[in-house]
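subagent[fold] <- orchestrator: predict structure for attached chain, return tokens only, no commentary.
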Amino acid sequence: MTTLGGEGVLGTDFDESTITIVRHYNEHPEQYSDVDIEIVSEYISNGQDELAVQYLAQKRNDTGVPVSSCSLPDLVELSQEYREDDGSKLPSRRQFLKTAGRFGAGIFIADSAANIGGQVWYDQSRFHHPPGDIGNLQLIQKVLDGQPVSIDIHNLYLDETAENQESSYGREVAASVETVQSDLVDVSVRAQYSTSSPTTEEWKTVTDGISPDQVALDDAESIFSFILAFHTYRENTDADVTAVISDFKGNHSGVSGGIGTVLIERNNADRDADIINHEIGHELGLPHTLFSFDVMSYSVLAHNASHLTTVPYSPESQFNWDQIRDNLDQA
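subagent[fold] -> orchestrator:
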């Protein structure tokens, strides 16, 4: 360790507390972290002893004890904050923050890789770019014309009691959809929630079509067959976007056909709202994102968070939406 205390550092221009700090550093290096010693040594090697003293003084200030009141016993006592009873060093706050930062960055990088990998695995990378290549042009144009978008969220039960018909579930889903979608520039959304629980016989009598539990959300034929059947069943709906929640199956939690109807596999209120927002994003032409914590991503963190809270659009999706608006304005 480089000793601190060249000419001028311990001279008459410095008060007693500064001299105490210097002596303590020179006599008790074991009470300083490796990071502290490295920084102070760098200052000394550059002939910047005064900056070294200021750094050590600031370390003392960080503990809440004024430098001017620090005596050698004070400094020894303060240094014990970084030591265990057996004398082994604990990490300094700088080391702890550096480690925490690396850990957080590692999680972010791993989650971003999982996000991209998930899009590739589920053959969704084709929906990554460019913005506007997918979507419902009629819906997008309505937004650009300054008109509000109406969304009909319908929970369809077949041969069972509509357990989620309670008003709290519907209010939570509708409110989440309105909040997230309205975050996009110029988008105004009105969402309404409803349920129905026909028997299989009633369903087939009206639609003569495929039932929800026969629909695989990764099979285009069954998806479009169900959409036709559903709009036969609810022929009076005139919403811009209809989100159907039911007991679908397959490898996807939701699907958008770009024709104003999205299908959602039933889960809980937060998760259902998250998937609805994701699919409406596709209806508006938004692609998947590389940024992890975004309703348009395949992020593991965002997926798990969606079971507990609403996942928003990130700045990446906002930027993509701006591109879509600009391109259509220029068309």
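orchestrator: received. Logging for downstream: Residues 93-121 form the longest helix (29 residues). DSSP finds twelve helices and five strands in the chain.
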